[in-house]
Sequence to fold (314 residues):
Amino acid sequence: MSTASRLPQTLRRLAGKLPAEVDNTIRRLAVLSLIGQTVLVVTGGAVRLTASGLGCPTWPRCTADSLVNTPEMGIHGFIEFGNRLLTFALAAVAALMLVYLWNLRKERRDLFLLALGLLASIPAQAVIGGITVLTRLNPWVVGLHFLVSMALVVFATLLVNRAYGRTGQFMTRIHDPLPGALRPIMMAVAVFSAIAVMLGVVVTGAGPHAGDADAPRNNLDWDLFSHIHAVPAYLITAGTAVALVLVLLHGIRGAFRTAVFLLLGVTILQAIIGFTQYYNGIPALLVGAHMLGAALLMSAATNAADIARFSPVK
Fold:
């Protein structure tokens, strides 16, 4: 039998060893994907805040003669190339999840498409990252790079919820009924979270942390846009506070209650970091913490809105 004729049999045998239902391996890969996307935001922040944005001055190579950073490039080259390497790790996780979902690609199309989207985003992010380098850290391109990462955090959060049966067509958990007002409130909080993140990109593009001493700025009024950026943050806090009051008044238990408390904690933490950095000269460490907080906020807001959407209404 030829090699070509044996290949389909080998693939069928391999497929027979893959899960026929969502198991703990698939769930762990979903969680790992969410963690990885969040870590990518942190490492991207480290690139900018350590002025390592041009640590690898070319793309797709790190230098004109090397695919990887060299000792002569110092810590900046190490940080920038390390951030590039993380995208390969995320691609491996997404590809592995697609493999594990192969037998479920029709039955659990929701999981398969989310995992496929996360994998397809890797080359897209790489291209945007390359344009960032080739445009010498244009703040609008850098901002786009960050926003795509935020979108991937959202998709990874949805993937985790679907994998654990908390939401979606194949829910395995029963949620407490919610007052009718809670669903639009949580959807609004999720929208305001996205707006806050987008305005934060504008603020960062006007601020001092450009990723390189010679990188351009967007020449907008940093102080003015900082105050504009705070408006959706106030609305997020107000919406979350109202949701918490309704949760307590109606004695709501389970996943939604936990989601609201988690969202409130992240919102308060972000507010503390934001005010502290504003009144202390925007120190790099706090800016990095605020970027991590933005990823956590998008995940927490998505989680709460997603659970509210699939909870019964009183």
The chain has a mean pLDDT of 90. DSSP finds nine helices and no strands in the chain.
